[in-house]
Write a structure and sequence with these properties.
The complex is a heterodimer. Chain A is α+β, with helices and mostly antiparallel strands. Chain A is built from twelve helices and twelve strands. Chain A has three domains: 108 residues, 2-Layer Sandwich (Beta-Lactamase); 84 residues; 152 residues, Heat Shock Protein 90, CATH 3.30.565.10. Chain A has a five-stranded antiparallel beta sheet with strand order 2-1-5-4-3, with helices on both faces. Chain A has a five-stranded mixed beta sheet with strand order 7-9-10-12-11. In chain A, strands 6-8 form a two-stranded antiparallel ribbon. Chain A is elongated, with a radius of gyration of 32 Å. By secondary structure, chain B is α/β, with parallel strands linked by helices. Chain B has one domain: 3-Layer(aba) Sandwich (Rossmann fold), CATH 3.40.50. Helix content of chain B is 36%, strand content 22%. Chain B is globular. Classes of the chains: A alpha+beta, B alpha/beta. Chains A and B meet through helix 8 of A and helix 1 of B.
Chain lengths: 350, 143
Amino acid sequence: MLTNAAFLSEFFDNAPLVFTCFDEKLCITNANKAGLAIIKAASKEAVIGKHIEEISPGIRETGRLEIYDNVLKTGKPVHLRSIVTVPALGSKHMGAFVFRIESGIAIIALDVSEWVEEEKKIIRQLEQKNKELEQYAYVASHDLQEPLETISSFVGLMNIKYQDQLDDRGKKYLGFIVQATLRMKRLVTELLEYSRVGKKENFATINLNELLQSVVTDLKDLIEKNNARIEYSKLPALSANETELKQLFQNLISNAIKFRKKDTSPLIVISSEKKESCWQFELKDNGIGIDKKFHERIFTIFQRLHNRSEYEGTGIGLALCKKIVEIHGGNIWVESEAGNGSTFYFTIKS
Amino acid sequence: MKKKLNCVVLIDDDYPTNCFNEMVIEDENITEKIQILQSGREALDYLTNQGKFSQNGLIYPKPELIFLDINMPAMNGWEFIEEYNKLPDEQKGKIVVVMLTASPNPDDLKKAESIPQVSGFLNKPLTPAMVHDILKEHFADYV
């Protein structure tokens, strides 16, 4: 039976993990076999006392020196993952714990190169699958447009040229076809828009006051028809995709007008607030509100809360908003209760 | 001569679909009345004489046959069935048939099979042959 100290020493030396210790000046005080191998030292005696920069040239550039210093100062352990170039072994991904000991710091490191490779493979597969899915939605909606155009133009012709020759039932049938064709056109267009979002990552600095002004101009007819008022104070400039952000505001504003109360003119108040790592926006309306049980469902594609006879729509609008916000590293949610207006919040990473 | 059904209910948010189904059933001349309802909520109100049907008093419509769409806004078909199951027997109809879209999601099929209150499911669009099959299976002494 080994003594405690001898047991620990044997454990330390033979563990297939890199164990190294440094004093407060970051000179090496101890290393096990795996540790010596990684710094390509012949023996413990050959390296003891050497400064860390002498053992691992270029370590300063990796930022690790600063981290070690911090552990020395604060005593707070850190977990880090870094690429270490070892002459003997090539480039390795190491996962390491660095922690304070009485005489300085200790580092326990493990070669995680295989795990990293595995991870990379999974990410590549995911990216590939995502791309395929996006492409699929895009092609499907694009290719649907052509036969749909044919149906739409000939149904339109029939409606104009042959209506007189149909009896009442025939007219009714034709009416249904015309309506359904229009609906499908809208669905396909919006589905295309949805699948296009995020395809181009051209971010630029955008002045939101200008952007909102142009949204208001685009929605002029809708705003005037509903006698709606849109108020916003000074909004920030931020880095985003202009087209997508415009679409986001346009969807949220036109929704607020669409779901207005019959006897109250729509009032939409837009404001922003700087948070730690993002801008948070708020769109408050005085419309019909949304029951709490639907607060999550409304952001799912094709989910609608009303009959088309009450409110037109495809159920894509808010799903599109969610996709846009997520591409900008943010979140979107709603606070509302039925009958009492809604406040939509979203964040954009700053 | 065999008797006709009293009432068939069509629940679908899509107006043209309701009209189409109404025409098919009308042409088969199997029922005194066809009631079109455009949402699950409206259908529950109809069955329980509430909301805009409150003037119907205490005699519940108790339709013999309900055709139910699944994909509807706010309250979908499955959610309707959940609420429907809570109704007392004197407010329930007799047979509920779930209508599925032309290429049904296998999960929907499984779900329809697993709910005892669902007597059957059909793929849209409704045809005269489907109507007769339902009558044969569930209403042998009618029409």
